[in-house]
TrEMBL record:
InterPro entries: Asp_de-COase-like_dom_sf (IPR009010), MoPterin_dinucl-bd_dom (IPR006657), Mopterin_OxRdtase (IPR006656), Mopterin_OxRdtase_4Fe-4S_dom (IPR006963), Mopterin_OxRdtase_prok_CS (IPR006655), Prok_molybdopt-oxidoreductase (IPR050123). Residues 40-96 form the 4Fe-4S Mo/W bis-MGD-type domain. It comes from Enteractinococcus coprophilus. PROSITE patterns: 4FE4S_MOW_BIS_MGD, MOLYBDOPTERIN_PROK_2. CDD domains: MopB_CT_Fdh-Nap-like, MopB_Nitrate-R-NapA-like. Keywords: 4Fe-4S, Iron, Iron-sulfur, Metal-binding. This is Molybdopterin dinucleotide binding protein. The lineage of its organism: Bacteria, Bacillati, Actinomycetota, Actinomycetes, Micrococcales. Coiled coil: none annotated. GO terms for molecular function: 4 iron, 4 sulfur cluster binding; metal ion binding; molybdopterin cofactor binding; oxidoreductase activity.
């Protein structure tokens, strides 16, 4: 039966008690008028519009996608679906999909064939390699393709062309997740399991609006809250999110003050002795340094910096300090900040000093956002090397060279792979002259859009955009390649609790659109990339052979996939890596018994200085952590770089609503989702609205030193002095027209600046002004928009 999942976003409760199994609830949605009897076949897949990894089957009728059904047997969702998955598949069937390649001729994009488009790309690459060398070529990919596609792209870029310039939009997303894990455990890899929700007695969410961004995980938490022995919830978020409303303690700090708050929580836990001495002595280094730094952050000091009542900080610390099974999650409220890594690391520190790791209910999720962000990182398409290999360790380079059968010197490793913000700088300076963008829409998602538009439009840049729609970015391209997407191609992907799912092809892509994997392989063949014995560098030709190649590359590394096959994935519903021949069922939790991946010879990273970002050297790391322990890293609080002023008195934060995914290329084309939140709004507090003479629904203008956006006011209990804009709205809208009036993309306003360690841009603090433009009288706000950020 089709329920209305716009008004009832989390569906019915299925309460359960601590330590028991989460009940099954199967969510199904089919096109109007169809029942399950009408479906010709169901094809196994998982969710593509967030990172939770909810398994679902795609309904096919007459060779078209007609709906979705959650997989009851799956370990992640037990049958449930997120609102965006319920409706979002309709975008696949949208009439305005790209169906042929396009090239720019005399200033306009015209239809062409694959031969012409690929020839133009390959000729340019060759010319640039001759004129300037590999540093002229850059790739900006995504967290939304499949593992097979990332691994192929990473092999082409690092092993074939020899460029360091390959990064994902994961830089905007989960670079800090990886960086924080590397700081504390010397390797990426999420310790926890979603089953920790079943056991935890305290769940702490740091800058993570899970209710709207991983709504099935929130359903699991809601069901625990509705059952016996409910957990206590700690929420750290300046907005009154749905999570905040269910919290035992809601801390609403000033944006950009997370480190001060975390230090005060750690201060309380350490001075009250709520720590696990035995665990620390056996498995952890750096305790004395941490204790020394946080000693300077009594709750009174943090209360002042963060503007949070001191009693609330004490109460939160007491709950965290008395938890028997503490589950912590971290996301963009911490990551998209000037001290992103420093703050996220303090959450790791919290679980480490409490000895709460590797046991049921004791997890850490440095959360992912995109469905396949974990794979971008594992496969080395994100400014890392494949298999969590350490670019700073010559033995790891030699090992990767062995896997690819190339010379170690052919893999550039004189410094870390280039991060995206630096790549954009190289475009600005004119040294990157071909930029290939796949599965991302930087003309809406990168900070300071006026600058980004100018860079992507540069005459000396050949911009290639591989997408499924003619996005804002594609409109600036020199070559547009039409891709097949989820449901139209086969591949695997991995969520934040290391669960690998297969997503099988259900229907044919439209027109001449091709799977990203085929496009990348075609490029490698045309460039004639070879290994050192003259064989083809890319020796695989389809998803399954690409998966086998990736497995070989992952062998012996933390993310070992060697025990997984397509067949096994199809017979079950989700396997957690590492999974090997000896460990065929996969691994529920990492770091049981305090065994880490942090041995100097094995680790992915030696870490970075949290303040400057300077890499720790091999020698320093060896001296510091010879025994492969976890590392507590302390950090002093530093104020945000751009603070409110007389001219710009507010702090602007940006983020999401449940109904839309990113730049809305899919959710804006699903009628229910589009109608729920068709246009941009700005959230501000009652007090701020009153003093600015703004009423609910009024049109307002928000300005920062970078630009201007107009949005309708939504008045809430957000903390005063802070305004919130969703970042989903680019110039594209469902009418297909580009509004010529003022902008509506939040990133018109954001700044070009990033965290020193993770290089993740700062989307969550900018100084801004807001004023009323016109009154709401006579206009109405769609129901979903009022609901959106309950
Ligand atoms: N509905 C929906 N779900 C999604 C996505 C989507 O676009 N739409 N995208 C997916 C992706 S890629 C990602 S990365 C995730 C992101 O998921 P989240 O991180 O949960 O989402 P955001 O809304 O970006 O930010 C979370 C919260 O950070 C708070 N915040 C802002 N500044 C601060 C601060 O200084 N300190 C603290 N403590 N909190 C602050 C905001 O008020 C916001 O509620 O969502 C994933 N899921
Ligand atoms: N102000 C502000 N800015 C932000 C954020 C924020 O919170 N605030 N969040 C940041 C975060 S966390 C993220 S993840 C980014 C997201 O930013 P983007 O990655 O730019 O956003 P998407 O709309 O997901 O873009 C994905 C593109 O891939 C296309 N696509 C979909 N499937 C396929 C496929 O199979 N193949 C190919 N080739 N293309 C496909 C889609 O049509 C779409 O154009 O935005 C970042 N920017
Ligand atoms: Mo993200």
């Amino acid at each position: 039966m089709n329920n209305n999942r716009i008004t009832d976003v989390w569906g019915a409760r299925t309460p359960y008690a601590a330590g028991t199994a989460w009940p099954v609830r199967v969510d199904t949605h089919l096109a109007e008028g169809l029942t399950e009897h009408d479906v010709d076949r169901w094809v196994q897949s998982a969710s593509i519009l967030h990172s939770n990894g909810d398994a679902l089957d795609i309904a096919v009728k007459d060779e078209r996608i007609v709906g979705v059904r959650g997989r009851a047997v799956d370990r992640v969702n037990h049958g449930r679906l997120d609102t965006k998955d319920v409706y979002g598949w309709q975008a696949n069937e949208s009439k305005d999909r790209l169906t042929t390649p396009l090239i720019r001729e005399n200033g306009t994009l015209v239809e062409t064939d694959w031969e012409t488009a690929m020839t133009r790309i390959v000729d340019t690459t060759r010319r640039l390699l001759e004129e300037q060398g590999p540093s002229a070529v850059g790739f900006h990919t995504t967290g939304q393709l499949f593992a097979e596609e990332y691994y192929t792209l990473a092999t082409i870029a690092h092993g074939g062309i020899g460029t360091k310039h390959l990064d994902g939009n994961t830089r905007l997303c989960t670079a800090t997740a990886a960086a924080a894990l590397k700081e504390s455990f010397a390797s990426d890899g999420q310790p926890g399991s979603y089953t920790d929700v079943d056991h935890a007695d305290v769940i702490a969410l740091f800058g993570h609006n899970v209710a709207e961004t991983q709504s099935v995980l929130w359903m699991r938490m809601l069901d625990r809250l509705a059952g016996d022995d409910p957990p206590q919830i700690i929420c750290v978020d300046p907005r009154p999110t749905p999570v905040a409303r269910h919290a035992t303690v809601h801390l609403a700090p000033r944006p950009g003050t997370n480190v001060a708050l975390m230090n005060a929580l750690l201060h309380e836990i350490i001075t009250n002795g709520w720590i696990d001495r035995d665990y620390i002595d056996a498995h952890v280094i750096g305790f004395d340094d941490l204790a020394k730094v946080v000693k300077e952050y009594p709750p009174e000091r943090a209360a002042e910096i963060c503007d949070v009542p001191v009693g609330q900080i004490r109460e939160a610390a007491r709950i965290l300090g008395h938890a028997q099974r503490l589950l912590s999650t971290v996301l963009q409220g911490f990551y998209q900040s000037h001290q992103a890594t420093a703050a996220a690391v303090q959450v790791n520190n919290l679980n480490l000093v409490r000895g709460m790791l590797g046991k049921p209910g004791c997890g850490i999720f440095q959360m992912n956002g995109q469905p396949t962000a974990q794979n971008t990182r594992e496969c080395g398409a994100d400014g890392d090397l494949p298999g969590f290999r350490n670019w700073n360790n010559p033995d790891h380079i030699a090992d990767l060279a062995r896997v690819w059968n190339v010379n170690p010197d052919d893999i550039p490793h004189y410094s870390a792979p280039t991060h995206l913000m630096q790549m954009m700088r190289y475009v600005e300076e004119g040294s990157i002259r071909q930029l290939w963008v796949s599965g991302t829409n930087p003309a809406v998602s990168l900070p300071e859009l006026a600058r980004i538009r100018a860079l992507l439009s540069k005459d000396d840049l050949q911009l290639i955009v591989q997408d499924i729609f003619l996005t804002e970015t594609a409109q600036l391209a020199d070559v547009v390649l039409p891709a097949a997407t989820w449901g139209e191609k086969t591949g695997t992907f991995t969520n934040v609790d290391r669960t690998v799912h297969i997503s099988d092809k259900a229907v044919e892509p439209p027109g001449e659109a091709k799977p990203d994997l085929e496009i990348f392989i075609d490029y490698a063949r045309r460039l004639d990339l070879r290994d050192k014995d003259g064989g083809p560098l890319i020796s695989w030709s389809d998803p399954e052979s690409a998966f086998e190649a990736w497995k070989a590359c992952s062998r012996g590394r933390p993310c070992d996939y060697t025990g997984i096959t397509y067949d096994k994935l199809r017979r079950g519903s989700g396997i957690q890596w590492p999974c090997t021949e000896d460990n065929p069922d996969g691994t529920e939790r990492l770091y049981r018994d305090g065994a880490f991946f942090s041995d100097p010879d094995y680790c992915e990273s030696y870490g970075r200085d949290l303040e400057t970002g300077a890499p720790v050297t091999a020698t320093e790391y060896r001296a510091m952590n010879p025994d492969a322990k976890a590392i507590l890293r302390a950090a002093e609080y530093i104020p945000p770089h751009e603070l409110p002023s007389e001219e710009y008195p507010f702090q602007l934060i940006t983020g999401r609503t449940i109904y839309h995914f990113h730049t809305r290329t899919k959710t804006g084309r699903a009628p229910e989702l589009n109608h729920a939140a068709p246009e941009v709004w700005v959230e501000l507090s009652t007090a701020d609205a009153r003093s600015a003479g703004i009423q609910d629904g009024d049109l307002t203008e928000i300005t920062t030193p970078r630009g201007l956006v107009q949005a309708k006011a939504r008045i809430t209990d957000i903390r005063s002095g802070v305004i919130f804009l969703p970042f989903h709205y680019g110039y594209w809208d469902t009418t297909g027209s580009a509004p010529d009036g003022p902008g509506r993309a939040a990133n018109e306003l954001t700044l070009t600046d990033w965290d020193p360690a993770s290089k993740q841009p700062i989307f969550k603090t900018a100084a801004a002004a807001i004023r009323r433009v016109s009154s709401a009288a006579g206009t109405s706000v769609p129901a979903g928009m009022k609901e959106g950020s309950r």
